[in-house]
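The following record pairs a protein chain with its ligand, magnesium ion.
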Amino acid sequence: MRTYIKDALKKTGKVEVVGWVHDSRALGKIRFLVLKDISGRIQITTIKGKVSEEVFKLIDSISRESVIRVIGNLKVSKQAPGGKEIIPNKIEIIAKAEQPLLIDVSDRSKTELPKRLDYRFLDFHRQKIQAIFKIQSTISMKFREHFVKKGFIEMQPPSIISSASEGGTELFPAKYFEKKAYLAQSPQLYKQMVACSMEKTVTITPVWRAEKHNTVRHLNECRQMDIEMAFVGQMEIMKQMEDVVKDIVSEVLKNNKKELDILGVKLKVPKAKYISYDETAKLLKIRYGEDLSPENERELCKKFPHTIVFVHSWPVSLKPFYIMPKEQDANAKLSEGFDAIYGGVEISSGGQRIHIPDLLIKMLKKKGLNPKDFKHYVDSFRFGAPFHSGWSIGLERFTQCLLNLYNIREACMFPRDRDRLVP
Ligand code: ATP
Ligand code: MG
């Protein structure tokens, strides 16, 4: 809307705009309409007597959120928000919005989140919601671009798998002809196979986790931004994350200034802090061998504000079977695995993987898993598999933490949770 207006102004001052009716006000003989589209808002000002009776009547009958076309003259106006207004010659209703609206779509909507999600299509009419997803689009675009520029190959892992890829997380079963299948909980094994031949791979892919919990930081379907890289260890792979997060935040600051203002978010390119699990446990006074609780994660971020905190070298007992133990020793206490904490929550887990079949079998047994169930996986490392590392950042989780959203559902267009399967 904005650029279109600017171009038109240079020529004749006559403009044609389409958009949604955000607001309308009557003031004696004047009618104000605020028209919105994805790029912004503009005021349409109509004075009785100065426009045709037909246009004036029509304005009074247009319901909020209806889609209209306005043809008129653009005027610079000190009083109008944004400094410009359109004096219409012609108005056409393209799509009428039925009344009453199902939810409050005003800037300070009073409708609670579950109801807003029930009518997400209408919630998308709101500037704040549009701002969240414009920023999310910048995040995923920049993520992909950053790694493709560095020579990573984008991959598309399967969403239907035959057995658990990680153990631990619960899976959604699916029927696959005569066979039993599951929805993928992670692209883990697939990106490792790609990295062990094509060296560097990147993907943004949906994953499904059948955990029954209902929290403000978990979805049952989420998108993961993953990389996997051969010939690097834990430290190098964490640095890759530091670089991409800084790049993404810089891009959001450059691209989405308006959206950050709308959301009232003050963003800064973060610093990075590398700290071992041992040091973290001392710092937070947690018992050795305990996982970080959500409170611990918040506390850690308070100690290091505006910082991605990479907690590395976790105890083997707290990491999945495929994370490399220190010194490639099955009896080591510590591993080459890490978590990244940012904005008070875990945004990512990763580390060096085990590429040695015998060691992998030992670690599977240690975790109480049956190596037979992982035969395909283990065998994939028998024919020239280099050491490699990787990680995974949840797209919605990352958006939530960057924009300080209380509930992760705000960062997902169509969330799937314990109770929600529609829309
Ligand atoms: P958490 O400890 O927060 O439950 P996790 O350790 O189970 O997460 P990982 O398997 O390490 O999760 O997944 C990598 C990343 O994917 C997480 O750091 C997080 O950003 C995101 N993620 C994982 N599970 C979910 C979920 N259920 N909903 C949204 N994002 C998720
Ligand atoms: Mg994790």
